[in-house]
Each structure stands twice: as C-alpha cells, then as structure tokens.
Amino acid sequence: MSSQSTVVGSAPLLEVRDVIQRFGGITAVDGASITVRAGTVHGLIGPNGAGKTTFFDCIAGIRRPVGGTILLDGHDVTNESSVRRARRGLRRTFQRQQVFGWLSVEDNVLLAVEWHGGGGGMIGDLLGLPSRRRRERERRERVEAVLERCGLLRLRNELAGGLSIGELRRVELARAIVDSPRLLLLDEPTSGLEDHEIEELGEILDQLAGTDDCGVLLIEHHIPFVMRHSAEVSVLELGRLIAHGTPEEIMRNEAVQDAYLS
C-alpha cells in the first residue's frame, strides 16, 4: 500500500474525460472520466458487464470512443492508434491471455523490445556490427532481469503454449513491463494465480508505483488485492462511474456497497 502516500501532488499521467462507447443501441461506457497519476496504482472495480474492459479498450486504442477525450502525458491520443499509444509507453495485459504459444517464454518477452530495432539495419545484421551485438546483449540482460522478477527464469526455454494459466499471466506481465512502461493497464491480473503468486504480483505493482516513472490502472475482482495496493479506486456500474476515492472511502460508500460489495 506504499503508493497511497504519493497521491497528493502526483502528476496526472492519464486523463480520461467523458468517454462514451456504444455498440448499436447499447451504451457500454456512458460519460466515464478517470485520472491516473504517475507513481500510483488506480483500481477500477465493478460487477461483470459494467463496461470495464470496453473502457480499457478505449484507453488502449483498440476501440475508438464515440465521445470524450483521452490524454496521455498531456497528449490528446483519442484518435491515435494502439500502436502509436504503445510507442508513448502504454502497455496492457488482457483478461484472456494473448501470448505466442509456439515461442519460448524468453522469446515472448524479448518480442516486446524488438520494435526498437537493432541498429545498423540489414548491414548491421549481415556484418554483426558491434553496436548490434551490444544492443542485443543489453536487451537479453533486461529480459533476464524481468524474467527473474516475475519468477519465470526456470521456464525461460519452455514453449508458452504449454504453460498453466497462472504462468501465462506472469509471461504477459513480464512482456508488459520489460520495456519500462509509462502507463500499465492490467485486466484481471490475479485470475488463475496461486496465493503466493498474487503476493508476488502485489510486490511488483508496489515497486512500479514506487517512482514517478509509471502509473498503473488495474481492473480486478479480487477486492482485497485492489484495496491493499491501490492509492485510488473508481467504481463502474452499467458504464457509469458511480464512485471514486481512497480504498477506505470506497469501502464505506453506500452506493458501492449496494451495487457491488453487498
């Protein structure tokens, strides 16, 4: 819960203003606004069907909202592609694991840093230039450190397609944090994890939120986990944000208790 003390004075990293998303005649997100501050974990909770994942899709650029504005580090990214947002430092995990099953755990994580290029282009590849070898060595060192951090070193050479759900969750997390994210969106990260793995995940989140380099927006049904590791919590019901505050305030909120916690 170390991130809670950093809320006051922390810079807004993500600002979502009055976002609306519709599917035909159904309004999945109805004028939702949220602010995620650098150096904090912000929890987003709500019952199934509340629109949480659709809200994430709008923030990540997978779906373009029909209304509202999304700012990342002060830049209006409302109409930017998901790739462009990723270049700005937005990383995301998914409720359903999305890994390359035919690749090893290490190669799955290594892919997340390949977009930087190796330096020297095709000539660098052919000649094995020192700059290319240095960058490759630095990347692999970074990947190894993240694999260790996520408890995946022993699985580094295993094919991702043969892993358990909990192991796949850790692969996705490693892939999301290996390239120093600015904003990390986590969709149900504790699902399928053992108790000790949930504790380890909490430690990683606390570390990420320990500096102003990263902010985390967390969708999670594991309420004790959210309340323990979030500085702020927002509650979504039927596409509308019905409450926002500290974990203590949310737990005391009667509207939240009626809609979700009862």
Walk me through the structure.
By secondary structure, the protein is an alpha/beta fold. The protein folds into two domains: 1-89 and 181-262, 3-Layer(aba) Sandwich (Rossmann fold); 101-179, no CATH class. Helices cover 37% and strands 24% of the residues. The protein is built from ten helices and ten strands. It has helices at residues 52-60, 82-87, 105-110, 121-127, 130-149, 165-177, 195-208, 223-229, 247-252, 254-261, and strands at residues 12-23, 26-37, 41-45, 67-72, 75-76, 90-92, 183-187, 215-219, 232-237, 240-245. The strands form two sheets. Strands 6-7-8-3-9-10 form a six-stranded mixed beta sheet, with helices on both faces. A four-stranded antiparallel beta sheet has the order 2-1-4-5, with helices on one face. Strand 7 (183-187), helix 7 (195-208) and strand 8 (215-219) form a beta-alpha-beta unit. Helix 5 (130-149) packs across helix 6. 41% of the residues are buried. The model is unreliable at 1-6 (pLDDT under 50).
